[in-house]
């Protein structure tokens, strides 16, 4: 059972292929209809023999505030899917022997259902790394780069992104900046627009990338934060001061600069 989004279905499908094609298992995906589109349906239909899928009916979230953040929406969606997941597992158990129930990181609230029904259950945790930023850091002098990243979900407004860009350019300092699409309504908007059609780089000031080429590197959406903080070229960290980010910076670096950007701009 993947959480909503094509990017979550694919890793689980690759794992399932190993069991289906190499070990003779069958695999059934439980997917959310709220996030079902032509591309997702076409992908699931293209899977080889031995695969099937069940679509959970639409889950109303009308009672949530319009500006509810990603954690609230996703938690509510998964929580409200539990009765449907129970029905699916019971139905499957009547026709086949369930060897395992596998979920991804965001579907943890469904695990008690598997435990209740006596089905072995597992969580698949995946990660990938953008090494481009690390290769660029290898070419920079020790302690010369300001790492700018505001966590995995916090977003700046359009105005704040523009001001951030002008400030970095005017400083003349080397920088590695993780940029996400702006959101003027929700501070955690990046969670909902991570897979959106917009390119975060297009919100930068015109000519910014050309003018800062060589002195700075802009990475869309995500960079391997621990590796960046541990790199010898990193000399400062401009952050939202999330607790995990602070711990990582304390463990992996001796920085002259750690700034909470949201205290400054809010």
Automatic annotation (TrEMBL):
Transferase as UniProt keyword: yes
Record key words, sorted: Glycosyltransferase, Transferase
Coiled-coil annotated residue ranges, if any: none
CDD domains assigned to the protein according to its UniProt record, in alphabetical order: GT1_Gtf-like
Entry superkingdom: Eukaryota
Pfam families found in the cross-reference section: UDPGT
GO molecular function, one term: UDP-glycosyltransferase activity
Family: Belongs to the UDP-glycosyltransferase family.
Name of the protein described by the UniProt record: Hydroquinone
Organism annotation: Musa troglodytarum
